[in-house]
């Protein structure tokens, strides 16, 4: 076969290209190439007579094993002449021949492999067809079973439990275990036979029946849809079916329906809609009942507790009244058992008139100098200190101000104390604040000790003091009474030991005890806003032990104890009963005298604090007039001129004292209105408020910051700084008096009776008078009265006697007058003449 006619399996003719000497590049189908080395030396071939010599070996292609040669066919016998002829072939022809033979062997091998592959594909196709036929038969069988299962599910549709568990009914359907996966669609499942459906010409079910079967919800499909669970649509249908059954049974019952009485919790105020929800009634029914009671309300309106009780009772329910104050129930612990009580230090409060030496006496007892730190040498804050006696016992002292403005502080000190020491100066005797301190002590029901101070001063008379005390029902021991007294001198430090002995004796008689092993409770002695530490409160612990980290509620504020500082400036970790400490960690500045209680968690603390803040807000808020008549009557009552101010002080007690003093100096003509009061320095917001209202800012022991001063200078806001409360009250009293202006004082100087009226000119009328009292003078103010009712207030423009102008007419004489701007004069009227004097006003 020649090279031109040789084509095998549709491939192109193999081409051979000589690259280098001794190497040949082969090109195969699909673009494959290979370079082989051809051995050039001739080999001697030894053959038997009649056999074809074997071809020369060719080196392996790229050192890869050559494909196995095809089955050797019997070659035609060659003569020695042929073998010799082959040996004489040129090198090129031998190479081409060898390549052709190798290609033929490779192609033959490929054809054999392709033939085996075709046979395998054919066999696989037959097996797949057989498997598909088996699947169709299995699907046909499964669909019949699914139809039966679907019929069973539809019959038991109202039984949700049976469907949810996938059980079959008694009709013979197979039970499916929900814990096991559903069988595959091609797995044959043995099912009872059913009559054959319509089939097409090929013996298969018709397409219409097939679509119908596929559209049905079967148990297997339902289980596969929700990972073993029934679809939600079926559960909803079951639920609706059960509700319908219940409704049918309810309507089928002809007996009367018995309404269930409920326990309805009703707060102090509740909306009609919320009340209806708690009663399980319709809101429209409640609105109708209220309308019958004469109240036209809507569902969203609020009714009080009494009205809600009427509605609850009318609808046959039981009411449970609750109050917003119930949030405080249980915040204070139970009473302590006697076995848990332990002795505690006494709390002693020093009270008395201003400048009688209270703080000096405490300085002598403590060995410190507190007076030097107070402005003006008077105490304007309540202080708490602890003093250790020679015997080693501790006594807690509270120092209160003696000025009249600090009445609330003295009352607060008397309420939280065990013993009161009333300091009376031997040279001054009993003074107003001394009497007030005695009354506070009696009201608190605590024992008192009279300390007669300044015995070293000139004119000191202790006997006079004891005698004056009898006027206020205070009988000392020297006068056969039960009140202890001691003569002391804070300056000379005399009598101090005797005073401490009397305090210790009185404390032993009281047998003071408290339980330290419980949640702490205490009272705010003083509170302030510190620039570096924030809100700070001085707490006197009454029972329990206050520890760092405790969560507490104090008044309308809550917080957590971050740190505690004692009266010596040392940080402490805990404070027991009768120990005063400064507490840091409050959410705001509490009010002086507010109770402090430790609570379990922050949520409870915030809840109680919010309730108390809401109560305070409602107390500060003025109620709006409910009608136009009430509004005008309220406006008529507001006749006094208002003097608005903004007050900032260093402590809460000082704010309280300043507000009380300013309210005391208010009169019916002018009264102080505090727009805002607070603790701490004057800030920009305070200046903004004062600027909008055009009012001054009063600063007591505080100053304005740089930003506030800048805004105040721009908006022309006045600052009034004070360090002594005397000066503050005197300054505000003077400004309030100046706001009213000079006081007008009227003095009636004469009265006259109108006898006759004459025309005077074209429009005016002259009155002929008889002066009955005093005198009448030209230019004075006068009131014309008719039947004791003022007709007009005017002045005398002209006064004549006979035809002469005169300046004054005395009692018993007749005269004629011409009144300014009035002609309403009739015989019988009375003319009252008075003078007006302007005097400087004082409050």
UniProtKB/TrEMBL annotation:
<feature type="compositionally biased region" description="Basic and acidic residues">
    <location>
        <begin position="240"/>
        <end position="258"/>
    </location>
</feature>
<dbReference type="InterPro" id="IPR053905">
    <property type="entry name" value="EF-G-like_DII"/>
</dbReference>
<keyword id="KW-0648">Protein biosynthesis</keyword>
<dbReference type="InterPro" id="IPR009000">
    <property type="entry name" value="Transl_B-barrel_sf"/>
</dbReference>
<dbReference type="InterPro" id="IPR006847">
    <property type="entry name" value="IF2_N"/>
</dbReference>
<dbReference type="Pfam" id="PF00009">
    <property type="entry name" value="GTP_EFTU"/>
</dbReference>
<dbReference type="GO" id="GO:0005829">
    <property type="term" value="C:cytosol"/>
</dbReference>
<dbReference type="Pfam" id="PF08364">
    <property type="entry name" value="IF2_assoc"/>
</dbReference>
<keyword id="KW-0963">Cytoplasm</keyword>
<dbReference type="InterPro" id="IPR023115">
    <property type="entry name" value="TIF_IF2_dom3"/>
</dbReference>
<dbReference type="InterPro" id="IPR015760">
    <property type="entry name" value="TIF_IF2"/>
</dbReference>
<dbReference type="Pfam" id="PF04760">
    <property type="entry name" value="IF2_N"/>
</dbReference>
<dbReference type="GO" id="GO:0005525">
    <property type="term" value="F:GTP binding"/>
</dbReference>
<feature type="compositionally biased region" description="Acidic residues">
    <location>
        <begin position="148"/>
        <end position="168"/>
    </location>
</feature>
<dbReference type="InterPro" id="IPR044145">
    <property type="entry name" value="IF2_II"/>
</dbReference>
<feature type="binding site">
    <location>
        <begin position="399"/>
        <end position="403"/>
    </location>
    <ligand>
        <name>GTP</name>
    </ligand>
</feature>
<keyword id="KW-0396">Initiation factor</keyword>
<dbReference type="InterPro" id="IPR036925">
    <property type="entry name" value="TIF_IF2_dom3_sf"/>
</dbReference>
<protein>
    <recommendedName>
        <fullName>Translation initiation factor IF-2</fullName>
    </recommendedName>
</protein>
<dbReference type="InterPro" id="IPR000178">
    <property type="entry name" value="TF_IF2_bacterial-like"/>
</dbReference>
<dbReference type="InterPro" id="IPR013575">
    <property type="entry name" value="IF2_assoc_dom_bac"/>
</dbReference>
<dbReference type="InterPro" id="IPR005225">
    <property type="entry name" value="Small_GTP-bd"/>
</dbReference>
<dbReference type="InterPro" id="IPR027417">
    <property type="entry name" value="P-loop_NTPase"/>
</dbReference>
<comment type="similarity">
    <text>Belongs to the TRAFAC class translation factor GTPase superfamily. Classic translation factor GTPase family. IF-2 subfamily.</text>
</comment>
<feature type="compositionally biased region" description="Basic and acidic residues">
    <location>
        <begin position="74"/>
        <end position="147"/>
    </location>
</feature>
<dbReference type="Pfam" id="PF11987">
    <property type="entry name" value="IF-2"/>
</dbReference>
<dbReference type="Pfam" id="PF22042">
    <property type="entry name" value="EF-G_D2"/>
</dbReference>
<feature type="region of interest" description="Disordered">
    <location>
        <begin position="21"/>
        <end position="258"/>
    </location>
</feature>
<comment type="function">
    <text>One of the essential components for the initiation of protein synthesis. Protects formylmethionyl-tRNA from spontaneous hydrolysis and promotes its binding to the 30S ribosomal subunits. Also involved in the hydrolysis of GTP during the formation of the 70S ribosomal complex.</text>
</comment>
<dbReference type="GO" id="GO:0003924">
    <property type="term" value="F:GTPase activity"/>
</dbReference>
<feature type="compositionally biased region" description="Basic and acidic residues">
    <location>
        <begin position="197"/>
        <end position="230"/>
    </location>
</feature>
<dbReference type="GO" id="GO:0003743">
    <property type="term" value="F:translation initiation factor activity"/>
</dbReference>
<feature type="binding site">
    <location>
        <begin position="352"/>
        <end position="359"/>
    </location>
    <ligand>
        <name>GTP</name>
    </ligand>
</feature>
<keyword id="KW-0547">Nucleotide-binding</keyword>
<feature type="binding site">
    <location>
        <begin position="453"/>
        <end position="456"/>
    </location>
    <ligand>
        <name>GTP</name>
    </ligand>
</feature>
<keyword id="KW-0342">GTP-binding</keyword>
<feature type="domain" description="Tr-type G">
    <location>
        <begin position="343"/>
        <end position="513"/>
    </location>
</feature>
<dbReference type="InterPro" id="IPR000795">
    <property type="entry name" value="T_Tr_GTP-bd_dom"/>
</dbReference>
């Amino acid at each position: 076969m020649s090279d031109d006619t040789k084509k095998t399996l549709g491939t192109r003719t193999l081409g051979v290209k000589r690259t280098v000497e001794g190497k040949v590049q082969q090109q195969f189908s699909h673009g494959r190439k290979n370079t082989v080395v051809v051995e050039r030396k001739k080999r001697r071939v030894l053959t038997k007579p009649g056999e074809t010599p074997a071809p020369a070996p060719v080196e392996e292609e790229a050192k890869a094993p050559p494909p196995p040669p095809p089955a050797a066919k019997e070659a035609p016998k060659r003569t020695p002449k042929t073998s010799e002829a082959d040996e004489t072939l040129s090198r090129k022809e031998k190479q081409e021949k060898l390549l052709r033979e190798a290609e033929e062997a490779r192609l033959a091998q490929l054809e054999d492999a392709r033939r085996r592959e075709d046979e395998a594909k054919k066999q696989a196709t037959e097996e797949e067809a057989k498997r598909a036929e088996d699947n169709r038969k299995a699907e046909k069988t499964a669909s019949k079973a699914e139809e039966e299962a679907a019929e069973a599910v539809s019959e038991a549709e109202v039984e949700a439990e049976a469907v949810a568990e996938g059980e079959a009914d008694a009709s013979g359907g197979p039970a499916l275990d929900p814990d096991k996966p559903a069988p595959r669609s091609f797995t044959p499942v043995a099912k009872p036979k059913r009559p054959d459906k319509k089939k097409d010409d090929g013996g298969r079910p018709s397409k219409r029946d097939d679509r119908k079967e596929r559209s049905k919800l079967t148990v297997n499909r339902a289980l596969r849809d929700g990972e073993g669970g029934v679809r939600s649509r079926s559960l909803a249908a079951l639920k609706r079916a059960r509700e319908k059954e219940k409704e049918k049974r309810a309507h089928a019952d002809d007996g009367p329906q018995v309404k269930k009485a409920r326990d309805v919790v009703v707060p102090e105020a509740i909306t009609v809609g919320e009340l209806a929800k708690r009663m399980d009634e319709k809101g429209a029914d409640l609105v109708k009942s209220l309308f019958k009671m004469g109240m036209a309300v809507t569902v969203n309106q609020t009714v009080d507790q009494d009205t809600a009780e009427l509605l609850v009772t009318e609808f046959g329910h039981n009411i449970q009244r609750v109050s917003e104050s119930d949030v405080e129930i249980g915040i204070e612990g139970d009473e302590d058992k006697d076995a848990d009580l332990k002795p505690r230090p006494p709390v002693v409060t020093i009270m008395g008139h201003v400048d009688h030496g209270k703080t000096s006496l405490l300085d002598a007892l403590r060995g410190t100098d507190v007076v030097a730190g107070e402005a003006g040498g008077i105490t304007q804050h309540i202080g708490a200190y602890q003093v250790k006696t020679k015997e080693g016992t501790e006594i807690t002292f509270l120092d209160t101000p003696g000025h009249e403005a600090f009445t609330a502080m003295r009352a607060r000190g008397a309420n939280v104390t065990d013993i009161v020491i009333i300091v009376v100066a031997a040279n001054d005797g009993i003074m107003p604040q001394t009497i007030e301190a005695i009354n506070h002590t009696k009201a608190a029901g605590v024992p008192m000790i009279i300390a007669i101070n300044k015995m070293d001063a000139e004119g000191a008379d202790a006997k006079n003091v004891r005698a004056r005390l009898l006027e206020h029902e205070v009988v000392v021991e020297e006068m056969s009474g039960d009140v202890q007294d001691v003569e002391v001198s804070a300056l000379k430090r005399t009598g101090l030991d005797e005073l401490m002995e009397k305090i210790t004796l009185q404390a032993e008689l009281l047998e003071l005890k408290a339980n330290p092993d419980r949640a702490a409770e205490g009272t705010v002695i003083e509170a302030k806003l510190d620039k570096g530490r924030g809100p700070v409160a001085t707490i006197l612990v009454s029972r329990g032990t206050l520890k760092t980290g405790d969560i507490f509620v104090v008044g309308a504020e809550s917080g957590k104890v971050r740190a505690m500082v004692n009266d010596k400036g040392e940080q402490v970790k805990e404070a027991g009963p009768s120990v005063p400490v400064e507490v840091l960690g409050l959410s705001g500045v509490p009010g002086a005298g507010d109770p402090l209680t430790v609570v379990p968690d922050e949520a409870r603390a915030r809840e109680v604090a919010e309730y108390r803040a809401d109560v305070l807000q409602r107390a500060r808020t003025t109620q709006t007039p409910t009608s136009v008549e009430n509004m005008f009557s309220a406006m008529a009552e507001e006749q006094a001129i208002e003097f608005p101010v903004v007050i900032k002080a260093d402590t809460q007690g000082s704010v309280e004292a300043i507000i009380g003093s300013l309210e005391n100096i208010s009169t019916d003509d002018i009264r102080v209105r505090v727009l805002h009061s607070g603790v701490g320095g004057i800030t920009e917001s305070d200046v903004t408020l004062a600027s909008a209202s055009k009012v001054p800012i009063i600063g007591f022991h505080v100053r304005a910051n740089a930003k506030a001063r800048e805004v105040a200078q721009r908006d022309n806001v006045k600052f009034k700084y004070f360090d002594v409360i005397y000066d503050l009250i005197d300054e505000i009293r003077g400004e309030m008096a100046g706001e009213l202006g000079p006081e007008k004082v009227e003095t009636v100087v004469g009265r006259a009776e109108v006898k006759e009226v004459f025309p005077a000119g074209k429009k005016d009328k002259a009155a002929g008078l008889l002066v009955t009292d005093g005198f009448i003078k030209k230019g004075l103010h006068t009131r014309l009265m008719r039947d004791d009712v003022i007709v007009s207030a005017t002045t005398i423009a002209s006064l004549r006697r006979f035809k002469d102008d005169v300046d004054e007419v005395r009692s018993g004489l007749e005269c004629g007058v011409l009144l300014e701007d009035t002609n309403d004069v009739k015989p019988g009227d009375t003319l009252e003449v008075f003078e007006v004097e302007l005097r400087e006003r004082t409050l």
